[in-house]
Structures are given as structure tokens and as C-alpha cells.
Design brief:
CATH class of the largest domain: Alpha Beta
Structural class: alpha+beta
Mean pLDDT: 93
CATH superfamily of the largest domain: Alkaline Phosphatase, subunit A
Number of strands: 29
Shape: globular
Low-confidence stretches: 1-33
Strand content: 25-35%
CATH architecture of the largest domain: 3-Layer(aba) Sandwich
Helix content: 10-25%
Largest sheet: 10 strands, mixed
CATH topology of the largest domain: Alkaline Phosphatase, subunit A
């Protein structure tokens, strides 16, 4: 059966790429409540709840509150009507760096986050997160959605201050309907459309913790591609005329625009569900709700004439919507003209909750509580820096210096059409010098990431090493250009191999498993998994050749992302790994068919640590 002909019933019998069903749940110290934590929880009962909703690839212009008549977003708009609307709120040009800045209040490069995949998205382990801060203060903490700051423990959200995690840790996912996700380290199947499902879990968490303060983080993963959305939301836009267009209509792809708008209306519907739950539980006045996006739009569409989109350090790639509501504290309908950004949310929320920040490293963000609560009339000008792959721009209240050194007056020329560097040489020189200082202080001297992937923690015994984090050699190729949701294929020779740079935390016996697919005519290869002096072998004896899944749900043909399929577990057995760093290598000793197999991941489970 071709994947384009796959029925929904067929799909429900299969799983998307990453169906790694043997992972074990997190069983760390979250269940051990000390007397100190109980005291903190008692104090926390007087503090506001926090709900942070983060959309993925939603531009500033993707909301009706900002004047886009192509869609309606009444629930998100209501946060601005009943709270504060930021006029100039800035994040990073891409996903993982923005998430790191929310989590730490520090520029992403300081915490080791340099990219969006193959380990570059990981937040350094010596960084403390917003989850750590609120958990230490006695809050129940949870994250539901796209984590994107590290997969293996202790990069995993359960080790970063979040007691509860449901979602996925990768940068993007290959299918949004009944997807394979994880719950506290255990692989599970989602139910229905992913954003609806994530919201269901957030609603249950809010209900369960209604009598104590909670911090609920909802990092949604839409309107990020693949462009998939339920029929109910898409039908409105299928043949809908798009009246408001990108400033260069020739580059806009209307099919992408229509689906993105439908996905944004789905987000809005789910935000409405959160707000109604808070009202029903009489928690609205006790809860701070934050809504923002992680970067500019992921396609060329209306964005109020701003220059750039996702990936750009210009205004259109970094300016996003942001609303904060706190009834009885933030006056309804206020607008914040002062520039602010994701780096400000940790210090602001901690300040409004009246709790100390647990990290000891200096923050780049500042508390903007005085602006929200109208406690100040004098707010100093500041600089907010945007970085992507070595390109740096800087924004002040009035000016933006782009990564090429051009200067723009963002008040008089918000579309960045006219370079005024020669007219304002003093301003250009000042900002150029500031960018140079920032690069020297914040950016790493080398882009090489030498951090291994951790394996073998007693608190999180099972470690998944997905293809995303591996390196192919020889003929081996990824299933798609984007590594995040890929698998390895075209493994045709004994000279081919796949490696993972790992560090074993505990010596001990490890169960080794590979998640594979293999056509019937290719069965029979002998494979070997090796780490330093330890090795184990296994044979591919059972065919498993399921169809690809995803295309039947796509509204727009996808570009660099992989389709997905159900992978089967091949148990190699138990072998001993010694503590230390090395290359985990997967290779074939013989290849009787045309190909060894396709590989989604290797899984290592610590059976018993040896001290």
C-alpha cells in the first residue's frame, strides 16, 4: 500500500517515527517531598498561578488583534483586552534559542544553545530554569508540548524543574494526528490532533492542582510545519480569499498561508479552553496568563510590512505577539510601548509571584513588572540583541542596526527600507560597538559542540539515542534533509556505520535495543553495537516493512521534514558498559540483501549500576 493511500484506520494501527515503546517512566526525586518543600508549598498558596503559552512559528501578524482580517483569534485577543499588549516584543529567529531564553532569562548562547538539532539545541546542565525557580518555591510544575532543549536525561524536562512532561523533546514532529509522544520518559500514543491533546493534558493538570499554585508551560508546536490541521478549521480557509498579503505578494504561497491561518485559529480555540477552565475553577483572578510566539512566521504572509521572517534577525523574524493577563493587578487594555523580550519573562514572573530566582548566573533580562503594573513613568532605553548563525542585530527603542551594519529608524521606517547610517553616524557607531562587545562576551569562540550525549543515569534508566543525534558514514543517509524527525536509510555495506558520541554515567549492564524496519527480501544481516571495548551482536530475522505516514494528512507538500512509520524493536541483549566517553557504533558484519535495515534509534537501559 502506498503511503498516500493509507487510511486513518491503518494509521491508528501504526505509529509515527519514534515509536519507542519500551522507555521507562521518570522515577527521580520528584516524589520525595521534604519538610522544606512542604513549607515552600504552604507559602506558595498565597501566590499566583502561572500559565505560559508559547506558539511555534506564529508571526506578529497572525492575530486579529494586530489587524489581520484574514482570520479571527478572539481568545488570544481577549488576553490583550483584559490585560497588557506588548507593542515591541522580541525573541530569537528560530525555535530552540527562544525556548532557552524563556527558561533562563539569559541569551541562548550563554547556555550552549546554538541550533535546533543534532544536539545543538541542548541547554547546558549548569543553567537553572524557570521550572527550577517555581518548583523550588513550592509550585506544581508541568510542561506540555515541544521541549526542544535536550532529550536525554539530565537535559530532559523532568530534570529541569518540571515534575510533569507530556509531549516531545525534538525540534519538530513528523505527524500531528494520534502521534507517538512521551509522558515522563515513557513512550505513549497521543489522542487526536496534537494541540488539542496537549491542551487536554494541561486542563487535567490545572484541575488536579486547583488547590495549590501551579506553573503550567504549554509550548505548542504549531503553526510549525508539516502543515496539518483538522478539517473543521481548514474548511473555512480552503477556498477563502486571502485579502491581506505579504509586502511582496509574489513570494507568498497562498496554500501555506491558508493552512497557517487555520492552525492559528485552532490554537486560539485551545487557548479559549484554557481560559474557560480557569473561569470555571474560579482561578482566573489568581492566575497570570502569558501568550507569545518563538519567532517570526514560517512562510511569507501578511506581517504588517515588516522585513524578514523566521530565521532572519530583522524585525519580521524577531518581533512577535505577546500578551499578559492578571485580573485585578494588570489594568485591562493597557499597551506597553517599551521594547521587551523573552529574556524578560523569567525575572518578570518571579517578581510578580514574589519568589526568588534560584539561578546564580547574571540575567540578561529584566523584570518588566513596573511597566505591567504602571509602577514607573521613567523606563531607561535598552538594547536587545538578536542572533542567528553568527549574524547579530541590535534593537533599541527607536533604532535597529542589522547584521550588515545598516541602521534603520524603526519609528519612521518600520519596514526597514532606508539605511540612515550615514545620516546618524554617532548612533551607528555606538550600536556597532555594542554588537562587537556582545559577540565577544556572549558568542562562543568556536561553533563546534563537544558535548556528548549522556547515557546511564539511575534516575532515568532508559536513554533513547535517535537518528537525529547520530552521525552517518559511508552510504548511510537520513530519510529527509531536516534531522529532527529523520531515520537512517540506505545502509547497504559492511563499511557503512552509524555513530553516537556518548558518555556513560554509570558502569553496569545495559539492555541494548534497535528500532528498525526491514523489507522481507533484505532480512538476514548481522549487526554489531560497540562501545569502547564492549560489543554485542544480533541478527535481523523478522521482516517489518510498514508504509510511510504523514502525506495523507498534509495540506501542503512538505519540504525538508521526514515522513514517519512504525519501527519494530530488535533486542540485541545485555552487555556491560564502563563509565566514560566514547563512540557508540552500529555496523553490519554481513549484508545478504540490498540493505541492512532502516534505523530510527538505539535504546540503552541501565539494568543495574556498578559503583
Amino acid at each position: 500500500m502506498k503511503h498516500s493511500q493509507l487510511t486513518r484506520r491503518d494509521f491508528l494501527k501504526s505509529a509515527c517515527v519514534g515509536a519507542l515503546a519500551a522507555a521507562v517512566p521518570f522515577r527521580g526525586q520528584a516524589a520525595l517531598v521534604s519538610a522544606k518543600a512542604e513549607a515552600a508549598a504552604g507559602q506558595a498558596n498565597k501566590r499566583p498561578n502561572i500559565v505560559v503559552i508559547l506558539s511555534d512559528d506564529q508571526g506578529w501578524g497572525d492575530l486579529s488583534i494586530h489587524g489581520n482580517t484574514n482570520l479571527k483569534t478572539p481568545n488570544i485577543d481577549s488576553l490583550a483586552r483584559d490585560g497588557a499588549l506588548f507593542d515591541r516584543f522580541f525573541v530569537c529567529p528560530v525555535c530552540a534559542p527562544t525556548r532557552a531564553e524563556l527558561l533562563t532569562g539569559r541569551y541562548h548562547s550563554r547556555g550552549g544553545v546554538q541550533g535546533v538539532t543534532t544536539g545543538a539545541e541542548r541547554l547546558n546542565l549548569d543553567e537553572k530554569t524557570i521550572g527550577d525557580t517555581f518548583k523550588t518555591a513550592g509550585y506544581a510544575t508541568a510542561a506540555f508540548g515541544k521541549w526542544h532543549n535536550g532529550s536525554q536525561y539530565p537535559y530532559h524536562p523532568n530534570a529541569r524543574g518540571f515534575d510533569e512532561f507530556y509531549g516531545f523533546c525534538s525540534g519538530h514532529w513528523g505527524n500531528y494526528f494520534d502521534p507517538i509522544l512521551e509522558h515522563n520518559g515513557k513512550i505513549v500514543r497521543g489522542k487526536g490532533y496534537i494541540i488539542d491533546d496537549l491542551t487536554d493534558h494541561a486542563l487535567a493538570f490545572i484541575e488536579q492542582n486547583r488547590s495549590r499554585p501551579f506553573f503550567c508551560y504549554l509550548p505548542y508546536n504549531t503553526p510549525h510545519s508539516p502543515f496539518q490541521v483538522p478539517d473543521h478549521f481548514y474548511e473555512k480557509f480552503r477556498d477563502h480569499p486571502v485579502q491581506m498579503r505579504n509586502r511582496d505578494p509574489k513570494v507568498e504561497q497562498l496554500d501555506r498561508t491558508r493552512c497557517a491561518l487555520a492552525m492559528c485559529e485552532n490554537i486560539d480555540w485551545n487557548v479559549g479552553r484554557i481560559l474557560r477552565k480557569l473561569n470555571k475553577l474560579k482561578l482566573a483572578e489568581k492566575t497570570i496568563v502569558v501568550y507569545f510566539s518563538d519567532n517570526g512566521p514560517n512562510s511569507w504572509r501578511w506581517n504588517d510590512g515588516m522585513k524578514g521572517r523566521k530565521g532572519s534577525t530583522d524585525e519580521g523574524g524577531t518581533r512577535v505577539p505577546c500578551m499578559i493577563r492578571w485580573p485585578g493587578h494588570i489594568k485591562p487594555g493597557i499597551q506597553i510601548p517599551q521594547i521587551a523580550g523573552a529574556i524578560d519573562l523569567l525575572p518578570t514572573l518571579a517578581d510578580m509571584a514574589g519568589i526568588p530566582i534560584v539561578g546564580t548566573k547574571p540575567l540578561d533580562g529584566v523584570s518588566i513588572k513596573p511597566l505591567l503594573l504602571k509602577e514607573t513613568k521613567n523606563w531607561p532605553d535598552r538594547m536587545i540583541f538578536s542572533h542567528q548563525r553568527g549574524r547579530v542585530s541590535v534593537r533599541t527603542q527607536q533604532y535597529r542596526l542589522d547584521h550588515t551594519g545598516k541602521l534603520f529608524d524603526m519609528t519612521a521606517d518600520p519596514g526597514q527600507y532606508r539605511d540612515i547610517a550615514k545620516e546618524k553616524p554617532d548612533v551607528a557607531a555606538k550600536l556597532t560597538k555594542a554588537v562587537s562587545r556582545w559577540k565577544k562576551e556572549v558568542l562562543p569562540k568556536s561553533r563546534k559542540d563537544d558535548r556528548p550525549f549522556p547515557v546511564g543515569y539511575a534516575e532515568f534508566a532508559t536513554t533513547i539515542l535517535p537518528a537525529r543525534d547520530g552521525v552517518p558514514y559511508g552510504n548511510v543517509r537520513r530519510s529527509a534533509k531536516a534531522p529532527n524527525c529523520s531515520y537512517f536509510t540506505n545502509w547497504v555495506s559492511t563499511s557503512d556505520k552509524i555513530t553516537w558520541d556518548i558518555e556513560v554515567a554509570n558502569s553496569g549492564n545495559y539492555q541494548a535495543e534497535v528500532y528498525y524496519t526491514c523489507a522481507k527480501e533484505n532480512v538476514g544481516s548481522t549487526i554489531e553495537l560497540r562501545f569502547n571495548r564492549s560489543r554485542i551482536q544480533g541478527k535481523v530475522t523478522r521482516p517489518h516493512d510498514p508504509p510511510l505516514v504523514g502525506e495523507e494528512f498534509d495540506r501542503v507538500p512538505r519540504g525538508g521534514e521526514s515522513y514517519v512509520k512504525k519501527f519494530r524493536l530488535l533486542r540485541l541483549g545485555v552487555f556491560r558498559l564502563e563509565k566514560g566517553r566514547g563512540q557508540l557504533t552500529l555496523r553490519a558484519l554481513d549484508v545478504p540483501g540490498k540493505q541492512v535495515m532502516d534505523v530510527r534509534a538505539v535504546m540503552l537501559t541501565l539494568n543495574r549500576p556498578v559503583r
